[in-house]
Amino acid sequence: GGWLLLQNCHLGLEFLNELMDTITTKESMSEDFRTWITTETHPDFPINLLQSSIKFTNEPPQGVKASLKRTYSAVTQDLLGVSKMPQWKPLLYAVAFLHTTVQERRKFGPLGWNIPYEFNQADFAASVQFVQNHLNDVGIKHGVNWSCVRYMLGEVQYGGRVTDDLDKVLLNTYARVWFGEHMFSENFCFYKGYVIPKGNTVEDYLQYIEQLPVIDTPEVFGLHPNADITYQTNLANETFSTIVSIQPKDSSTAGGETREAVVQRLADEMLEKLPPDYNPREVKAQLQKMGAFQPINIFLHQEVDRMQLVISRVRTTLTDLKLAIDGKL
């Protein structure tokens, strides 16, 4: 009746076949038993296990509003009040905005990051924990050590995943421009219309996030407006490719015929045009009349034999295809 969790199964595909055999051949099993599998996409993943499973995917939300809303939905009031330092709440929001930015830039492909990085919620949690510990260590009298904060965010917490030099420069630029004493001034903003809200409760922040635009301009992330053209084009192409790849077999063509009906009609037409099989006796008799041992007639006999193989193979293939469409093969 317990639950079994197998993680990173793309690293042990051979074991999954053993797992499938164990589950399918088990005589009795508790109704409360569940097997959870986490894996990355892999072309050699056992298809029978994949088809018999319920699939879950966890994709990051699109847009600053959706991403911040998801982040602050997981923030508790206890976390918001964990530090008495006045810099704590603005820093928490700034880290959340940085987390949103690094994830959103991935959708722009090479325009966003030279190399795609798998930034995730663990990076945000580790950054928040560092900021909290740092504020607890320095205290109100000493203030925030901004060099330390920028280094930890740009080089360790998020920068630890970054391997490209120019990507590292970009990440450190975000840390330098957004994190400092200037972030507490009235004029500070991440981009026009995107500021650090003031509030004492999680609801205050969620209310501010709710009024943010649903669709963000690429300039919010430091990109040229034309970057959105590339993103929208790639997104449309990917969407259409996905639709075509999962198109059901009974989808209709422009003429109203299903794909199977078109294949059936073409197979019938080819079978009608296909010549009848050669009669070996008639071929032999005709060659004897023309001189069976003349070089040209020997060559003709060989060609007739080969053509008969082609005719037989085409007729068998088309007949089997029609039977397969009708489900009678």
Automatic annotation (TrEMBL):
Gene name of the record: Dnah5_0
Domain Dynein heavy chain AAA lid per the UniProt entry, residue ranges: 88-227
Name the UniProt record assigns to this protein: DYH5 protein
A GO molecular-function annotation: minus-end-directed microtubule motor activity
GO terms for cellular component: dynein complex
Boundaries of every Dynein heavy chain C-terminal domain copy: 234-328
Pfam (any one): Dynein_heavy
Domain Dynein heavy chain region D6 P-loop, chain residue ranges per copy: 1-57
Organism whose genome encodes this protein: Anthoscopus minutus
InterPro entries associated with the record: AAA_lid_11, AAA_lid_11_sf, DHC, Dynein_C, Dynein_heavy_D6_P-loop, P-loop_NTPase
GO terms of biological process kind: microtubule-based movement
